[in-house]
């Protein structure tokens, strides 16, 4: 099989923007590529074969390049996609669970999120340099916005202490995940997270 040459990486932010909505089949292909890339990047790092990503997604490598013209574009969109999925869980959990349980469930989902973004941030910094800061600022704002809503509801319900701020919690949870992720044992990570989460309730009004 002929190997398709990979275009050179861009040195500017690579978020794909197109005013035209994708057709259903094109949107499905794009989502499949992102899911396959997230899985393979998590297993093998961001140098994983783009040809293998295309194969796992069930598309030709040419289709992959039409959506993501170079590796950096794909890495950025995998990173953004994982954040978007995590943030989309916030309103759903808030609508179906009591405030504390919704916050706890969302923070527990960081185990998957941290595992998926393994190496992505480092790769983006290497490829985009200072321009990567705009990507990270956007992502952090999304996470903060979702977390603010869940945390405020839990505080209003008296389930979480009033002196806690969202970014403090997210940094602490992220640190726990990074410290334990090398053990390759998600349940062990969740046990440590439960200890941290117990601290959020210490001294709560309820």
- Which CATH first-tier class of the largest domain would you pick? Mainly Alpha
What is the CATH fold-level name of the largest domain? Tetracycline Repressor, domain 2
Radius of gyration: 19 Å
Name the beta content range: under 5%
The number of E-state strands comes to 0
Mean pLDDT equals 83
Overall form: elongated
Distance between the terminal alpha carbons, to the nearest Å? 64 Å
What is the CATH superfamily classification of the largest domain? Tetracycline Repressor, domain 2
> pLDDT under 50 segments (min length 5)?
1-19
How many independent structural domains? 2
Instruction: Indicate the structural class.
Output: mainly alpha
List the keywords.
mainly alpha, Arc Repressor Mutant, subunit A, Tetracycline Repressor, domain 2, 2 domains, elongated
Please, could you describe this protein's structure?
This protein has 206 residues and is mainly alpha-helical. The chain folds into two domains: 24-67, Homeodomain-like (Arc Repressor Mutant, subunit A, Orthogonal Bundle), CATH 1.10.10; 80-201, Tetracycline Repressor, domain 2. The protein contains ten helices and no strands. The chain has helices at residues 24-44, 50-57, 61-67, 71-96, 99-108, 110-116, 120-128, 132-156, 166-180, 186-201. Helix 6 (110-116) crosses helix 9. The chain starts with 23 loop residues before the first helix and ends in a 5-residue tail after the last helix. The model is unreliable at 1-19 (pLDDT under 50).
């Amino acid at each position: 099989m002929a190997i398709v040459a990979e275009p050179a990486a861009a040195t500017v932010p690579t978020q794909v923007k197109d005013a035209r909505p994708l057709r259903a089949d094109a949107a499905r292909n794009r989502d499949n590529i992102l899911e396959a890339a997230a899985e393979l990047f998590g297993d093998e790092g961001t140098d994983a074969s783009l040809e293998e990503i295309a194969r796992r997604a069930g598309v030709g490598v040419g289709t992959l390049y039409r959506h993501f013209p170079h590796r950096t574009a794909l890495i950025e969109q995998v990173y953004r996609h994982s954040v978007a999925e995590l943030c989309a869980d916030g309103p759903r959990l808030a609508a179906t669970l009591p405030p504390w349980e919704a916050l706890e469930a969302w923070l527990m989902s960081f185990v998957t999120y941290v595992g998926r973004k393994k190496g992505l941030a480092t790769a983006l910094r290497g490829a985009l340099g200072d321009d990567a800061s705009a990507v990270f600022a956007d992502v952090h704002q999304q996470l903060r916005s979702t977390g603010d809503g869940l945390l405020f509801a839990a505080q209003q319900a008296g389930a979480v202490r009033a002196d806690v701020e969202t970014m403090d919690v997210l940094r602490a949870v992220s640190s726990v995940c990074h410290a334990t992720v090398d053990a390759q044992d998600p349940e062990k990570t969740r046990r440590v997270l439960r200890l941290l989460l117990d601290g959020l309730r210490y001294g709560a009004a309820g």
